[in-house]
Amino acid sequence: MSTTPRQDALRNISSAPSASAPGFERFNLTELFGSRVFNDAVQRRRLRPDVYQALRRTIDRGEGLDPRIADAVSDAMKDWAVEHGATHFTHWFQPMTGLTAEKHDSFLSPVVEGGAIHAFTGKELIKGEPDASSFPSGGTRSTFEARGYTAWDPTSPAFLRVTPYGTTLCIPTAFCSWTGEALDTKTPLLRSCEALDRSARRLLALIDERPERIFVTLGPEQEYFLVDRELFQLRPDLLISGRSLFGAKPPKGQELEDHYFRTMPERVLNFMMDLEHELWQLGVPVKTRHNEVAPHQFELAPLFEHVSIATDHNMLTMELMQSTAERHGLACLLHEKPFAGVNGSGKHNNWSMADERGSNLLDPGHTPHENLRFILCLTAVIRAVDAHQDLLRVSIAHAANDHRLGANEAPPAILSIFLGSELEEVVEGLISGGQTKSRARSTVQLGVTTLPPIPRDTSDRNRTSPFAFTGNKFEFRAVGSSQTIAYPNIFLNTAVAESFDHLSDEIEKRSKGAADRRAVIQEVVRETLTRHQRILFSGDNYSREWEREAAKRGLLNAKNTPDALVLFATEANQALFEKYAVLSRRETTARSNIFFSAYVHRVAVEALTMVQMASTALIPAGIAYQKIVAESINAARAAAPKAELGEQEKLLVELSSTISRLRAALTILKDAHHQLEDKGEITAQAVHSRDLILPAMLELRGHGDRLEMLVDDALWPLPKYHELLFVH
Ligand code: ADP
Ligand code: MG
User: Fold this and answer.
1) List of domains in the chain
2) What ligand 1 atom has the least distance to the C-alpha of 302?
3) Test site for ligand 1: of 350, 418, 460, most ligand atoms within 8 A of the Cβ
4) pLDDT the model gives residue 112
5) CA–CA separation, 315 and 98 (whole Å)
6) How far does the centroid of ligand 1 lie from the alpha carbon of residue 304, in Å?
7) Which of 217, 284, 304 to mutate to test the pocket of ligand 1 (most atoms within 8 A of CB)?
8) Structure confidence at residue 215 (pLDDT)
9) What is the pLDDT of residue 23?
C-alpha cells in the first residue's frame, strides 16, 4: 500500500539526524560572548583615542555624532569585519512591518589600475539609500518621495552574520523618509528614551539627585513552540499564517501540566544550545531556558540591557530561533496562539529605569532617600498605566494577540497593576497618610522612614496580572510573542515621561513659598495614588467578577484589535506624542493606518488559507472516505443481505452531512472575504473582518474538525494536533 506524505513525515522523524555538533564543549563562554560584535572592547582597541572618546560620548551621553570621526570608524569597522571574513555590509533596520530588513552591498570597489579593493567610507557607514519604497508608510510617503534612507545608530553595536557561505557586517540603523519622518520602529523608540530621560531627571532634581542620564532597561522573556519541520511543511496554515486554522482537539492536551520545567528532549536541547551559541557570539546575553506549560512550548530569557539594544537583540533572537530550528529539522512558531485549546505564547516585557551607574530607579533601596526616589517612580508608573491604559492596550493589539488576550490562560485585555501585598500596604499607608484609620499597619513618611523589605518575586505570585511589579521592575505580560517590543516600550516610556512631568509640575507649583518640600511631595504622591488607585488589582484577572469590577471602576476593556486601535490616533494621543517629540501627528496617523491594515491583511490571509485547505485537502479526504464507506456498504449488502448496516449507514449520513455543511460554510467565508473590497475605509474593513470573516472562519473550522474525527486516519492529509504537539 502506498503511503501518504503525512505518514512518510512521521516515519522520518525517528530517523532524523540531528545537526552535526561542532564540538561546543571546547568553547569558552567568556571568550565567545560578543566575539562577532564591534563592541566597546574592539572599538577601544582599534580606534584612535580621540575618535574612540568622541564615539563613546555619542553612545553614552547621546551627544550628536561628530561627522569627522565617521571615516576613522568606518575604516576600523571594515578592517575588523574583513579580518573576520566579511565580504558584504548591510544597513539593518526595522521598518513598520514589525520585522527587520536589510540590503547587502559588497565591500568591493574597482580601482583605476584594474582589479578591486575593499572599500567602506564614513559616508556609507552613516547613511544608506536602500530605495526601500515598498515598505508600508501608512500614507506618509507619496510615490515621488517614496525613497527612504537609513541612518547609522551608533548606540547599537554592529555585528557579523556568519553563515557557512560567507559573512556580512550588519550595521543597526534607523529608517527615515527624505522629509525627515520616521519610517521605522527604532527612531520613535530612541526618541521615547530621550523623553523619559529628560522628564526623569527633571523630577529627580526636585529631590536633589542629578544623574547624568536615565536609561530604560529591558529584559524580554521570549516564549515559542517547536514542531517537527516535515510535519510543519504539510500544514499550509502553519506555513502561511503561523497558526493552525484547523485541527481537532487531541485526547491529551496540557491538562496534566506535565511539560512545565520538564527535562528537555535531546533534539530540543541541541537546538537551544546551538541557538544560544549563535546568540552569545552576537552579544545577546541569553541567560535562561526552560520548558513552558504547553507541550512543545519553551522559553528563552536574556539578561536585561538598554531598551533599544534589547529590542534589536530580541529581533535577532526571533530570527535566529527560526533559522536555527530549520537546521535541527524543527520549525519555530512564534505566533501568539499556534494551537487552539493549548496555552499561547507571550513575551514578558521586564521594564525598569537606571542611571548611568546602573542604580535601578525601581529598587526600593535601604535608605529613606532611596525609598523616596522609589516611591516617586512607582507613583509615576502607576499613574502612567492608569492615565494611558488606551496606549498600552494599543501597543499589544494585533490579530494574533486577540486569540490570547482574554482567553483563558493569558492576561486579559483589561490593564491593571499587581503590586504584591507588601507594596500594596505601603501604598495604602501613603494614601491614608496617617490621617484616616487605615488597614495598613504603618504609614510611610517619605524621605524619613524606610520601607519594609519588598521581597523579590521569583515565583510569579500572580500569573494572571497583565502588569506586575516583581521586586525591582515591572513586567508587562500582555505583550505578544511574535510582535516587536518596540511599541509597548515606546508607549510605556512616553506615558511614564508624561507622568514624571505631571509630578514635577505639581511639586514645583506647590513648593513655591512652601517651607518643607518633603511635605509637598508627600501630598502630591498621596493625591496621585488616590486618584489612580483603581488600576491596582491583586485578585484573579481571569475571573468574570474582575471584568464586572473593572467596569465599575471605569477601566478600559477593549476586547479586540479594532476596538483597541481606534483608541490610538485620538487628539489626546496625537498631542501627547507630539509634545514629547516621539511621533509627529503624521507619524502617529501613519502607524494607526498600518496597524489597521496589518489586521485586515492578516485575517484575509488566514481566511484564504482556510478556503484553500478546505477545498483542496479536507473535502477531498472526506469524499474519498465517503466513497469507501458507500462502496463497502453496498458490497456488504450484496455479500450478506442480512448484514447489520444501519450504523454504517448512519456514519455515511454523518459524513455526507458534515461535508455538505463544510461546503456551505466555505461559501459563506468566501462571500465574507469578497465583501471586504466594498467596505472602503480600512477601519470599516477591520470591523468587517472581525464581525464577519473571523466568525465564518470559526464556523468552517468546526465542520473541518468534525470531519477529521470521522475520516480514516490513513486518508487524513494534515498532521494532527497530537502529532504536532507530542512527537519529537
Ligand atoms: P525574577 O527572578 O524576578 O523572575 P529574573 O532575574 O528571572 O527575575 O528576570 C526575569 C527577566 O527580567 C530577565 O529577562 C531579566 O533580565 C529581567 N530583569 C531583571 N532585572 C531587570 C531590570 N532592572 N530591568 C529590566 N529587566 C530586568
Ligand atoms: Mg517572568
Assistant:
1) 27-184 (3.10.20.70), 205-221+347-439+455-583 (no CATH), 222-245+256-345 (3.30.590.10), 599-726 (1.20.120.1560)
2) 14
3) 350
4) 78
5) 9
6) 6
7) 304
8) 97
9) 61
Task: State pLDDT tens for residues 666-718.
Answer: 999 999 999 998 999 999 999 999 999 999 999 999 999 999 999 999 999 99
Residue nearest to atom 5 of ligand 1 (CA): 458
Q: Atom of ligand 1 at shortest distance to CA of 362?
A: 23
Distance from C-alpha of 725 to C-alpha of 255, rounded to nearest angstrom: 13
Which ligand has the nearest atom to the CA of 300? 1
Query: What distance in angstroms lies between residue 351's CA and the mean position of ligand 1's atoms?
Result: 8
The CA distance from 541 to 535, in Å, is 12
Run of H or E including 11: helix 5-15
Three-class secondary structure of residue 720 per DSSP:
coil
Question: Which residue has the CA at smallest separation from atom 17 of ligand 1?
Answer: 219
Can you give the pLDDT at residue 438? Answer: 45
Phi-psi label, residue 494: left if phi above 0, alpha if psi -120 to 50, beta otherwise: alpha
- The predicted pLDDT at position 144 comes to 46
Which whole number is the average pLDDT over 71-85?
94
CA atoms 482, 486, 491, 495: torsion sign: positive
Could you tell me the distance, in angstroms and rounded to a whole number, from the CA of residue 460 to the centre of ligand 2? 7
Does 592 score more than 70 pLDDT? yes
Q: Which ligand is nearest to the CA of 458?
A: 1
Per this entry, what is the length of the chain? Answer: 728
Question: CA–CA distance from 163 to each of 70, 99, 292, 323, 419 (Å)?
Answer: 28, 20, 30, 11, 46
Q: Which residue's CA is the nearest one to ligand 1's atom 7?
A: 458
Q: Look at residue 589 in the predicted model and tell me its pLDDT.
A: 95
Strand ranges (E), 428-504: 467-469, 474-476
Ligand 1 atom at minimum distance from 352 CA? 24
Residues around ligand 2, an ion, CB closer than 5 A: 348
Q: Could you tell me which residues come within 8 angstroms of residue 515 by beta carbon, excluding any fewer than 6 positions away?
A: none
User: For ligand 1, atom 1, which residue shows the shortest CA distance?
Assistant: 458
pLDDT in tens, 106-155: 898 878 788 878 889 888 898 888 766 677 777 765 544 557 889 999 99
Q: How far is the CA of 475 from the centre of ligand 2 (A)?
A: 7
Cβ < 6 A, ligand 1 pocket? 217-219, 221, 301-304, 350-352, 360, 456-458, 470-473
pLDDT in tens, 320-376: 999 999 999 999 999 999 999 888 999 999 999 999 999 999 999 888 889 999 999
Listing DSSP states for 572-640 in one string gives HHHHHHHHTTSS-HHHHHHHHHHHHHHHHHHHHHHHHHHHHHIIIIIHHHHHHHHHHHHHHHHHHHHH-
> What local confidence, expressed as pLDDT, does residue 29 receive?
82
For residue 523, the CA-to-ligand 1 centroid distance in Å is 32
Compute, in angstroms, the gap from residue 420 CA to the centroid of ligand 1.
17
Backbone φ, ψ for residue 134 (5° rounding): -95, 0
- Ligand 1 centroid, distance to 352 Cα (angstroms): 9
| CA-218 nearest atom, ligand 1 | 25
What sections of 449-570 are H helices per DSSP?
486-511, 517-532, 544-552, 561-565
